[in-house]
Amino acid sequence: MIKALAERVGHRCSFPDCNASTIGPSAESATSIAKTGMACHIYAAADGPAARRTGRSKSIDELRSIENGIWMCYRHGKLIDTDECSYTPQLLSDWRRLAEHRARLRHELGRELTCDRVRLEKALGSDKDHWERSLSKRSLLQGSTLGSLIKILERHGVQGADIAYLKWIKDKRDYFVHRLFHDGAWPGDLDEDGCRTMRRRLLAIQLWLSRAERNIWLIFERAGFVELDHLEDGGLLATNMGIYDLLEADTQSADEDF
């Protein structure tokens, strides 16, 4: 199954913005091959603290089938297994089908697929400016730090309990990034009890942060900045993204003040 997953996408990463080749020659010998891809489960094959997208409603045969797999480069394979809120089963299934479709087109056409900007602009027509604005807004939100986001939301009447939650998450995130491995012994120097304590601490932080993204979208919804459709698979579909306009307005205001 692993070989089939890789070959059906032409040994390319299935992450839409990546498409990196995951196989090539190695300099070790004339026949050596370097492989940088991995087969990932869409639904976790087994339950456990580190399991992502557990499929309790799935049969053993379904969990073992090729439809429950997706081919990724090492970087993105690790990424999708640390954030089940962003990378839902439905999203990953769609990505797998898209990657296979791209591979089929490359095979049929005998060349790489490239984006023809002239054709794209023609296809978008009057929606071209809206599309570029949407991309700009997305980049703005992704580039906003949690700290700056909290300051903006505080100025726009977001509930105090939601602001307190965001600050709590920021503290946990800052602790993990800046202080966790600087306080006390380095993990390699911990005794058995210390290792168990560190493991529990890391699992707790992982749980908090994995839930945070979903909760932040719910905060946006309560504040009236987005409309969310709650999908059957647990995912969220966000529309009417007023949060983008909010961030853009605050950014422009900050630039003018400067």
Shape: globular
N-to-C span: 57 Å
Mean pLDDT level: 77
Largest sheet: 2 strands, antiparallel
Q: What is the string of helix and strand elements?
A: HEEEHEHHHHHHHEEH
Overview of the structural elements:
With about 260 residues, the protein is mostly helical. It folds into 2 domains: about 1-110, no CATH class; about 145-255, no CATH class. It is built from 10 helices and 6 strands; from the N terminus they run H-E-E-E-H-E-H-H-H-H-H-H-H-E-E-H. It has helices spanning about 1-10, 60-65, 75-80, 90-110, 115-125, 130-145, 145-155, 160-180, 190-220, 240-255, and strands spanning about 25, 35, 35-40, 70-75, 225-230, 235-240. The strands form 3 sheets. The chain has a two-stranded antiparallel ribbon with strand order 1-2. A two-stranded antiparallel sheet has the order 3-4. Strand 1 (about 25) and strand 2 (about 35) form a beta hairpin. Helix 6 (about 130-145) packs across helix 10 (about 240-255), helix 7 (about 145-155) packs antiparallel against helix 8 (about 160-180) and helix 8 (about 160-180) runs antiparallel to helix 9. The longest helix has about 30 residues, at about 190-220.
